[in-house]
Sequence to fold (563 residues):
Amino acid sequence: MLLLCWLDPALPWPLTLSTPRIWGLAALNLLPVLILNAAFLVITRRLLLSNWLTVLALGAVYFVNHLKMQELATPLLPDDFRFLKTLGVSYSFFAQYLASSRMQLCFAILTLSVTLLLVRREPTIEFLKGRSRGAIALAAVVLAISLAHGSAPWKVIYNAGNLEFEPWAPRDSAARTGIITNMLLFYWELADDSPDSVNLEQARRVLHDRSLLAPLPVAAVERTELPDIIIFQSESLFDPSRLAGVDYDALPRLRAAMSRGWSGNLHVPTFGGGTIRTEFEVLTGLPLAAFARVRYPYLQLRRSEIPGLVRELKARDYRTLALHPNGGAFWNRNDAFRAMGFDRFINGPAFDGAERHGHYVSDAALVERVMAEMDDDGAPQMIMAISIQNHGPYDDVPLASNERPEIQIAGLDATTQSALQTYMAMVQATDQQLARLIDFVESRQRRTLLLVYSDHMPPLNRVFAQVPFQNGRRPEEQAVPWLLLDNGSDEVRTDDHPSWFLPAVVLERAGIRDVAYFNLLQEIRRQEVWNCSCDAPSETTTALAHLRYFDQIESAMASDELL
Fold:
């Protein structure tokens, strides 16, 4: 109880269990810990060892929660435990957030030493054998399984309404319920993480009522006219000059390019992390908010064929390639990209020895690989490049001191100032490489489209807490940049979009206008006034997304039942 009250921000410290509510909240967070402790006790038959293992598990949970809150402003959630399935790749990626490798090694040795000492020296509890041990084991298993499934009376004890649990606001909920209780309630809320419960008949009815199921006229497209397409997803790219008091242009080349192409603000479904949420929307055109239970789409949406931009291009004889310097098992991209239809996926091992900028493989190395993979002959190509260079954390990043811009922002402490300078140095390097890629595209003889966009805002929470934005909005409400250049056209257009609308923009620019789903999205856009900063798409867009995911749009259009 003392340890929980010290670690959990929802519980009082120093300990003041002065009201029944505080006692109750502490007990609710403690119950799952006691069940785990009982399981360790039955397995080890040693009191100190079981307590030690429980403390280690509890410390790990709250330590990871602290890091996630610090970097992403989001508490630990049940879906985060999916990373344990790819522990090798996940650990190598997230190790940058931990102490030095020497400190990690010392902690591992200390932990192992104490554990082995207790195993060898602590005597077993004589009482815990035979029937007594079996009875306690059975009780622990029954309690654990029933708690995980939310069986009676657990949902009465953990009453979501009384605890003011709000699944759409995990940070606020955790501050009210405690980290462990919040995770448990989230697990119950999102236990059915499949979109299969979607009512497709209702979705058809919504589109029919809006007169959207009648086939729309489309223009024929000559295959010889189809351009090559390069999509560059830039990690944590954001314009720092949008912060009050920052009079420094870290992205001059990108800004110049945006003045001669299609560009604008992009509203993405994540903040500070969760790259695959934006990535999924751009590759599929499906708004994640239409699937309320899905937080990590590559892990939860498991259709063998996922419709989207890649499959539409492959149907028109495009060669499709994905490039990413991190391991393909991370975020389950290996399986997800196969389902999306990519011909090839070049990932982590192929970038061994590549130039690094800071902790991660540089944008320079990624841009070099993109240019090397582009052919001047043959069928059109689509390359999706996913950068990693600008990923946090921004403390203790190995950059040369002369790379960091010498700027001073009023209101920032020294540590936070250094983190912002580091980030600005990183995006300056990205700006240089984007200019290099833009020059390459504009010099090609073959018509080529280049889409550049950011996956989300950077996790600069300490900066955002001390310096406001010029537009007065919260960090989570800020947009990121997008740019679409066409080396065969000098048309300029400025629009704000949600990230799931970008594929429609790319296909429109490419001259591909015979895809029913994206034609319908364009029609909905003409009929509705979209508030791009709103989390939830309209009922019409949601219905359309459901039909698209289950590949039901064409059959709905061909059906005479509703027309």
The radius of gyration is 26 Å. Residues 414-443 form the longest helix (30 residues). The first strand starts at residue 228 and ends at 234. The chain has a mean pLDDT of 88.
